[in-house]
Amino acid sequence: MKAAVLGGSFNPLHNGHVMLAQKVLEEFHYDKIFFVPTFLPPHKQIVCGASAEQRFEMVKLFCESFENGKHFVAEDCEIKRGGISYTYDTLVFLLKKYGNECKKEAEKIEGKIGLIMGEEIACEFEKWKNPEGICELAELIIVPRVCDYSKNDVVVSKNKPTGNYLGDFAEQFDEKKIIYPHKMLSENVMAVSSTDIRYRIANQKEYKHLVPQKIFEFIEERGIYKDLNS
Question: Is the model's pLDDT at 62 over the cut of 80?
Fold first, then answer.
């Protein structure tokens, strides 16, 4: 099978993630896209509100419900591994699990695995652990994004960049500066903000239109993010 990876904190998974994955699936003709929730990202501090297990459960619920799990697969390897989640380690794991160790031919990854990233992430790709090694294992797929974040007077639950990372959309994307082999998605994808969704939930504002139905039900049933202002 032809496969790609979409990683992230998914705190929570939202319709921006869904649109991004769908467009990559359609344009580059992938059979599967692995959604991989990070445990501890190296580039930012994850805001509390949902545990790692809850973030994975949300991703799993969505992947299983979307077209009956035909194209999207939830993978919890980074959460099980613990510690800082490095993409290179995840690629090695997936290529082993769905390569030599895979007993079903239909589930074996063929060719290079795709690695999906928004342009706000691609701006700082050279800061990642072993970017050259990543490019040996994967084909970079960069997604142009339109930033339309809500401007809130009070922003709760905002992720803070760590180390020498600047954070999402802090740097203007310039494809000419990307020195690694890559493909660009032909269409822009609206960048929905997890920060804005958490703010809306904590302040009892409407957010149902920003997340898949299964995610909305999960958050409401468990009361996730409602106490972030306290």
Answer: yes
